Amino acid sequence: EWQELLLNLLRTNDTNRRWFAANHLFNNPNRFHQYLIECPSTDVRAAFGFIIVTLAAFASSDPHLALEELCSWTSHSLYGFTYMGDTRLSLCTHIISSCVAIIHNKKLDFSKNLQQFFHVFFCFAKVGDSERHLLLKFNLHNIFIRIALQEGTYMRGQYHELSQIHSTLVILLQC
What we know:
Distance between the termini: 34 Å
Strand order of the largest sheet: 1-2
Structural class: mainly alpha
Strand content: under 5%
Helix content: 55-70%
Shape: globular
Low-confidence stretches: 72-84
Number of strands: 2
């Protein structure tokens, strides 16, 4: 019920999407990490992942904007992740880059709730070709392969997460 109401608001126009992103996603530099990784509730993590994927999919054709237009912080101050080139990107790109930035966090505990985190990328990749190309632009396929190969460091014995990585890689490689 609440998801339909939110979807109707986000579907309406880019002004609503920018407002929602600025006031609920980018107003706290740790928001993505808090809700995708740290949150103890599976339902909350799943709902937040759904919101991220839906918002990013709706915003893929929105006009470009600088991250400063959304908030005062930048993603490179969080996890050492920096944008390549111009920072005037679509809201979709800002959202996905914030998710990818979590992976670059050196302090990320890969034993926590990663199946749903990787599921966010899987769902986003299933949206369409432009979404898959965006994930490829962020080198997500290389990052996922590196994570899977470094099982001792990241994911020893966590086969569910590896299967989610595998599923996402299969979709990305079909581009």
